[in-house]
Amino acid sequence: MELELSPLSFFESLLESDKYEIMKKRYIDDYIEEHNGLINPSGDIDYENGIIKEDEYTTFRFSSKFTRNLVLESSKAKENIDKNVIIITSNNISPDEFLKIQLRVINSLLLKTNILYINQPCVKQAITDLNNHIINKYNVSSLLHITDEINVNSFNWDYLDNQENDTQEKISSLYNELVAINIISGTEKDFVNGFMGKPVLEGIRWLPKTKDNKSTAKSTLFSFIDYLIDESFILKLNGKEYNDAIEYVFRDYNGNMLKNIRQSKSSSTASIPEDIQEIIDNL
Q: Does pTM surpass 0.85?
């Protein structure tokens, strides 16, 4: 037997992004291609909900196929994990380190389910099942504690309860304007979530660099956030909360975590660049 290098590869791929709508469309398209349309003229296709009704007796649902596939892939993952443990222990090596790594991957996947596949709880259930399989079968609960809790240190836009949709549109507009002038890169969803107190998945890259072109210009990032606070767009944060929010939402131009935020903030005196100020003023 050979080691399965990535026993959780299916779920890692699935949670790269929310692929449900794409998979649902492909499910219907494949059916139409295979059958050259509907078998029965009286049938019906519901693209929005992924339902194919061939006739009054036969109905296919993508949601059911999706759930069945999760169960199948979960079983495969368990088998691959178990096979790897057998191979590792057959060489008189403890499988603990391998199991720790799998639990860390599972923990990361569980955190992503707080953002992705929110309307498909079967995804989180399948990953939780994998977690429980390792803990119960190999008695490794003390190695790593999996938790559903996630620390969300996003900024909060100042808006009324009935203005959430309008606020999201305003933040999306800000995102598009900043992307257009190469100030940020990242997903629109992360940017919106980062200013609405919601979980951020990958973070937003702050692209401006220092004069020596060697590092991210954190001073312009601070001036951007400070101006949003001064103009009452986002709620004010002080000290550690401010620094934590910067670290949580933003990344350097390479996509890495920002470093020395507290020290950089204390010595920052930069004014907000005119092009960024103009964008904010026009919101």
A: no
